[in-house]
Amino acid sequence: MQRQATQGVDRRRFLAGAGTAALVISGAAVIHTGEAWGLEVKNLKPETMRTLIKMARDIYPHDRLADRFYAVAMKSYDEKAGTDAAAKAMVEQGVAAIDTLARAKHGAGYADLGWETERVGLLRQMQGDAFFQNVRGGLIVSLYNNKEIWPLFGYEGESASKGGYIERGFNDIAWL
Amino acid sequence: MAAKYELNDDSVVVIVGSGAGGGTLGNELAQKGIKVVILEAGKRHEMEDFLNDEWASFSQLAWTDMRTTSGSWRVHRDFANLPAWIVKSVGGSTVHWAGASLRLQEHEFKTRTAYGAIAGANLLDWPLTLKELEPYYAKAEDKMGVTRTNDIPGLPGNNNYKVLASGAAKRGYKEFHTGRMAINSKPRDGRGSCQQIGFCFQGCKTGAKWSTLYVDIPKGEATGKLEVRPESHVAKIEHDAAGKVTGVVYFDKEGKEQRQKARAVCVAGNSLETPRLLLLSQSAKFPDGLANSSGQVGRNYMRHMTGSVYAVFDRPVRMWRGTTMAGIVQDESVNDPKRGFVGGYEMETLSIGLPFMAAFLDPGAWGREFTSALDGYENMAGMWLVGEDMPQETNRITLDPKAKDKRGLPVASVHFDDHPNDVAMRAHAHKAGSALYDAVGAVRTFPTPPYPSTHNLGTCRMSANPRDGVCNKFGQTHDIKNLFISDGSQFTTGGAENPTLTIVTLAIRQAEHIADLMAKNTI
After folding, report:
1. Could you give the ipTM of this predicted complex?
2. What chain B residue is nearest to A143 in terms of C-alpha separation?
3. pLDDT of residue B138
């Protein structure tokens, strides 16, 4: 994919390819070439899931978090789409709408835009929509309540089983 | 051995709710040999069930039944169906509370006199003085084991407190320390000392923090006079032709309707459910709801002026380690109208974990401005600002005309507009809090908006004149002699202080009064 893009045609496609080289579609899965994982998409279009993952990072961008945390946070949309036709329609239509906006303004789909500023500009345009609010509102729990990301922020989580912090630095601040 | 009473036993006192008001009252009455049934809407989760996990604990403990909101307060926009963050579980919000135990100040019992007439505020002096309450405050502090009272030492300060104290000293504040906390700093009353676990809001897993769940309720049950029925949601209080209450209708854990007879009924369902229950109990004789001849049931809803300031430093703080509310600055709690508002506010350390920080720092915000704040989580310190808000008649709990709960009962609808005095106080507090952290070298500060209300007060307020309020200075309703208000709904005004100690104090005093009335056979 990366090689194809560099051999590819115009500058726009080159830039677009370079920006999203890590997340590619293969069959019914979203594959992350850099992080070496794949996410099988059962009910949504795989392209839709790829865009959702990109959106998730753009909404709550943390450079210290790998893409897989955003993918895990968005997985439930695919699961829900399997049992809830209205939820599926909302996501497919929402992603189609943002892709239409992206093409009109920048000449490529949302996930293929190379600059975060361009994508975030589009999100700002739609931040009042139910689709955006649904994704943002879900993410605030599904992303930050993933215990695997807590250590990356220094947060230590549960402490009762370790005897609390009475002997483990509750008052160890040294720089004051 | 806990008591077990018959549904048709009309000699029992029924208490609705088992928190700071109801749980305390139940034990106090039982200690005097009075037969008590506590009906609690929530389940009985014990100490070992508590979870050091914010969202999981929220699902376990919080009152998440539907409520609706309106008004200019930001909670309406951010948490439209969650106006209050309170507990539905045996022990009520004493499971969740932080433990701060402060007496109201003398002038806060007579705000109409002290502050004068404030446009739009329905200020009223309490029918009580600090002097009258002092002996009961002393009993409450002893019962709860409040630090810095009864020769109990203060808790040790954690990292979050050390940042607060350092900033307070640099700003010239004088009154700051690790608080008056109902958290054991050394073993007392059969409970151990604080292990600095954190997660005070999720239920204390060692019992170092006072809660009716594992202090008052078991003591009451041990008398053989107290029965607690969990998962019992009271839907209506019934009365006879003479207008005396005769018992309550409730839904048991199977959703089956039951009727418990009673000699007296004490309502302690927190300031949203207490007025809701009185309004739901309307009848031909009382078409506006019980005890509502004044029209004040549900009105003068107060939630304290609240806000937070979080600050990011260039080095780690790890504020989540240890007591959630680990210290206090009290200099701003005085009434000094020169600041541009009446009443005062307390500055109290607060920490929330990463999951709740994401949800509460700036609800609805997204993008790098927001996430860069969370990137600094490990280097954050935080404080909660809690001050007196103005009672307003139009801030009120009503029955929602459309939304119903799973039993078909109208839900509580909460209307709240900030009073200009609340807005001015919050602006001052946000500025003072930020200045405190700036003095310690904060890189960024975040003036954070109010969370869903934890201090719900004043919707059945006490008044000297029956025209002005719902109950008298003992919480006995003006209209119905054997109906009592036993929670924070009684508060005539809110004061600046965390309300639990005062709720417990009023419950101890009310128990004495009820026992006295029963002995004299006047109820």
Report:
1. 0.95
2. B355
3. 98
> CA distances (Å), A36 to each of A23, A24, A117, A137, B140, in order?
10, 11, 27, 28, 61
**Which ranges in B332-453 belong to alpha helices (H)?**
354-360, 368-375, 420-438
Q: Does B499 touch chain A (CB under 8 A)?
A: no
Per CB-CB distance under 8 Å, the chain B contacts of A136 are 364, 366
CB A76 within 8 A of CB A44: no
Q: Which of B274, B244, B195, B484 is nearest to A166 (CA)?
A: B195
Identify which of B90, B71, B87, B79 has the alpha carbon closest to the alpha carbon of residue B27. B90
Q: Which of B164, B366, B380 to mutate to test the interface with A (most CBs of A within 10 A)?
A: B366
Burial environment of residue B241 by CB neighbours within 10 A (0 to 12, 13 to 18, 19 or more): exposed
Hunting for tokens 């006879």 — which residue is that?
B240
Which of A60, A145, A169 lies closest to B321 in CB terms?
A: A169
* pLDDT (0 to 100) of residue A3: 40
CB < 8 Å & 24+ apart, contacts of B358-363: B358/A60, B358/A140, B358/A143, B358/A144, B359/A140, B359/A141, B359/A144, B360/B308, B360/B448, B360/B451, B361/B310, B361/B446, B361/B448, B362/B446, B362/B448, B362/B449, B363/B74, B363/B78, B363/B79, B363/B449
pLDDT computed for residue A21 by the predictor: 56
How far apart are the two ends of chain A, measured CA to CA in Å? Answer: 52
- Could B359 and A144 be called an inter-chain contact, meaning their C-beta atoms sit closer than 8 Å? yes
Which chain A residues are closer than 8 Å to B158 by Cβ?
165, 170-171
Amino acid at A145: N
Task: Supply the pLDDT for residue B505.
Answer: 98
What per-residue confidence (pLDDT) applies to A15? 47
- Cα B233 from Cα B21, distance rounded (Å): 17
Q: What is the pLDDT of residues A18-56, one digit of tens each?
A: 444 589 999 999 999 999 999 999 999 999 999 999 999
Give the pair of three-digit tokens for residue B319.
């504020």
B310, HSE (Cβ side, Cα atoms, 13 Å):
27
Cα(B273)–Cα(B488) distance, integer angstroms: 11
CA-based nearest distance B207→chain A, Å: 12
Q: Is the pLDDT of residue A6 over 60?
A: no
Distance spanning both ends of chain B, measured CA to CA: 27
Selected for mutation to probe chain A from B49, B82, B159 (highest A CB count within 10 Å) is B159
Which two three-digit tokens encode residue B342? 């009446």
User: B485 forms bridges with which residues in the sheet?
Assistant: B267
State the sign of the Cα–Cα–Cα–Cα dihedral B31, B272, B304, B79.
Answer: positive
Sort residue B420 into left (φ over 0), alpha (ψ -120 to 50) or beta.
Answer: alpha
A9: pLDDT strictly greater than 60 = no
For chains A and B, what is the number of CB pairs under 8 angstroms? 115
Looking at residue A11, what is its pLDDT?
A: 52
Strand partners, B209: B183
> Cβ contact (<8 Å) for A156 and B321?
yes
Closest CA to B203 of B324, B40, B84: B324
d(CA A39, CA A58) in angstroms, rounded, equals 19
φ/ψ (deg, to 5) at B306: -130, 165
Helices (H), B402-475: 420-438
**B53 CB within 8 Å of a chain A CB:** yes
Chain A residues with CB inside 8 Å of B318's CB? 154, 156, 169, 172-173
Of the candidates A135, A141, A146, the residue with the CA atom closest to the CA atom of residue A44? A135
Query: Residue A22: its pLDDT value, please?
Result: 84
Beta-carbon count within 10 A of B4 CB: 9
Residues of chain B with pLDDT under 50: none
Residues of A in contact with B377 (CB under 8 A): 153-155
